Every structure is written in structure tokens, then in C-alpha cells.
Amino acid sequence: MSSQSALAEIENRIGYRFRDRDLLIRALTHISAVPADKALTYQRLEFLGDRVLGLAVSDMLYRTFPKAAEGELSRRLAELVRRESCAEVAAAWGVGDHVRLGEGEIAAGARRNAAILADVCEAVVGAVFIDGGYAAAQDIVQRVFADHVHAPRRPLRDAKTALQEWAQGRGLPPPRYDVATRSGPDHAPHFRIAVTVEGMTAAEGSGTSKRVAEQEAAKEFLVRENIWTADGS
Fold first, then answer.
1. What is the pLDDT of residues 75-93, one digit of tens each?
2. 154, 83 Cβ separation under 8 angstroms
3. Is residue 230, in this structure, part of any structural domain at all?
4. Is 50 a catalytic residue?
């Protein structure tokens, strides 16, 4: 595959055709490839793209969840733009094989490095912003992140903390966690924990440690009482 055909394929996956392909090349260039000239690397574009990505996702969340409080919007934003999420986007774009790297980084498997892929994702957003303006950058951000808006990969809050805050907000004592059962050998135990909030039926959760089982119990309680949805939001 020629360099130009590779760039064209990446543009197809991104859904944007660059007027200045040098911007895309720079967005794919790690500092190890041109250590003598940082201006030719993705660093500045990454800096810009990080801010553009944050604005575009914030706007999308603001419009999608009109009744959400600032705290919830902040948690959703943090989940959507975290390193792992951006790395997944870059991997879906198929840019890993085309990132320009030094020989040492290539040998070390840097093409699959999540931090580098996340940087490239942000750099591409920054490059689109420079080449086509905010509307173009916003368009690609909305397309690649839209599927994740209603289905975050991780719970937006710690379940035990959320349950304690819920109980406190209603003037109730802190939730109580009790070991319902413990099974398995000492080196591989399995716990079932019951959480009780005053005046309400207990909920149970299980796990390989008390901490995990307590979190699962708290989540079960929150979902059962319609305080949380199943995705932890």
C-alpha cells in the first residue's frame, strides 16, 4: 500500500478528507521518528485536539442529557475522553500500523501502545480542526463517540459511595454491609455480602473479595431501587 493510499484509507475510516494531508501525516508522527524537530510531530496537534475533543463531547452530553446535573455531566465526560476510550477510537480507525515511529519504539510494540494511540486520536481531531474548522471536528467526534454516550464502559460512580450519598441525602444512617456467606479455600475465597439501608430490604452481591462483593451489593441495591440504571449512571 502506497503512502498516499494508506492516508486515503485512514481518511475513509475517519470520515474526513483533508485538504492539507501534511496535517494528517503530522498527526501520525511520534517524536521518536523525528527527534530533532518536535514541530513535525503530533504533540502540538494533540494539545489542541484534546481541547476540541473535550468541547465537542461536552456539547454532545449537554444536549443529550438536558436534565443531568453538572456532576453527572463531568463524570460522563471523563469516561468518554479517558485514554482507553481514545485509544479504542484510534484502533478502530486503523491508524496503529501507520504511526511514524523510531526503530526502538517499533521493536517495543509501540504501535499497540494505548498511550500513543490515544495521543494520535486527539492529534487527528486537532488536525481536522485546523484543516476544516470546528464543525468538521465536531462531526467526527459525534460519529465516533455517539455509541458510547448512552453506554459507558464503566460505572460513572463508585457504587458504595453513591449509595452512602443517597442514604445521607435522605437522613438515613450509613448502609451496613454484612458477610452473608464465605466459601472456597483460603487462597481463593468467594464472598456474598448483604447491604442494608434502614427500613429497606437488603440487597446482595458476590465477589472474590469483600471489597468487590460490597461494590456489587451496593450496585444491586441502587439498580433495584431505580436509583441507578444497569450501566451505573
1. 788 888 888 889 989 999 9
2. no
3. no
4. yes
